[in-house]
Amino acid sequence: MSQLVEINFDGLVGPSHNYAGLSLGNLAATKNAGATSYPRAAALQGIAKMRRNMERGLAQGFFLPLPRPDTGWLEALAADESTDPALVAGAWSASSMWTANAATVSPAPDTPDGTCHLTVANLVTMPHRAHEWPDTLAQLRLAFADTAHFTVHDPVPPCFGDEGAANHMRFAPSHGEQGLEVFVYGKRGGRFPARQHEEASRIVARKHGLDPAQCLFVEQNPDAIAAGAFHNDVVAVANENVLFAHAQAFADPQGTYDAITARCPGVQVVEVPADRVSLAEAVSSYLFNAQLLTPPSGEMTLVVPEECRESAPVWSWLQDMLAGNGPIRHVDVVDVRQSMANGGGPACLRLRVVADPARVDPRFMLDADKASRLEEVVSQYWPESIDTADVGKDSLAADIRRARGKLLDVLGITELA
Ligand code: SUG
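Above: inputs. Below: predicted complex with N~2~-(3-carboxypropanoyl)-L-arginine.
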């Protein structure tokens, strides 16, 4: 018997983590361009978040940083420091840490062949992210190699932008039951790029063989994209029968809620009104880039970044929410400041896969002992800090490669060397 549970696969922050300001429309990343980064602290913050979720009794997995710098990509572009420093920074980016952008996942109960389908995201809108997918795909094929339980797909062709689970929500009475999959796309032509194209969402749904009656395609509010919500998961998060969303997340909010509740009658919508938390405050605090989790106790918990506690309107709204009798019963605060400074909150750092943990390659599953081993290798080999002026330097590149190599040795994942 398969035991289907939600497994969060967090991206371990890579040793090349830096602030190069590569993501137009991502206000935090743009604001912090040129700041000194702290890769070691960043990775330890991420591991601490994973530990907390395991302590709650939840299944936890992780993905490895990709090989950086990606010199093959730079060669293909015929670029170097003297011709295009932004491309060099792109070759060094640790952006694969945001695994919500690794793939779109349709769990087995939603698919006709009863396997969990994953389509690796092409991430074509941002050059520094567009070269992630081949190495991400190699990792997905390894972690989910058991073809009796998983089907891993190639990316959507590059004519349409696909950003993976960051623009996808799933509703179900419980994770292991058949669900409604909601794909949220942006319309092109606004101030900032709309990264998820409707065509890409529809291709993914078809490739996964989803029942059209169990899918919705919803437009993101163009105002949200213009306010810096470059992914829908910056303004909305779903878990089982709950949608937690900003009032301005969707182009047609009421139509979206009605369509969801018509197909999935138990769904409760927790909407945050704009006069309590503005779009700007939602984007700067990352209130919605939270992990909404169902621990074994059944009491739904919202894991928010520290920045939410520092925002008076956000914190006061959360207190009022807890004082009421809504479905979200706990709020927990985590420090992921290093990732946040590049526009990646608790939800960006994880890919949700509903599956039986016993079917996943155990090398990608985490427990407390392995977390300690990760902490050791990070503490010993991850650079303490990176000044953006050093991005591109050979000696730093050697340190970064050595750090990843040590990690692979510790985990015994030689296939990705
Ligand atoms: O794609 N930041 C990422 C953040 C991704 C957040 N993911 C989700 N919302 N799911 C991005 O914009 C910044 C890198 C830099 O500028 O150096 C960056 O890529």
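DSSP finds 15 helices and 15 strands in the chain.
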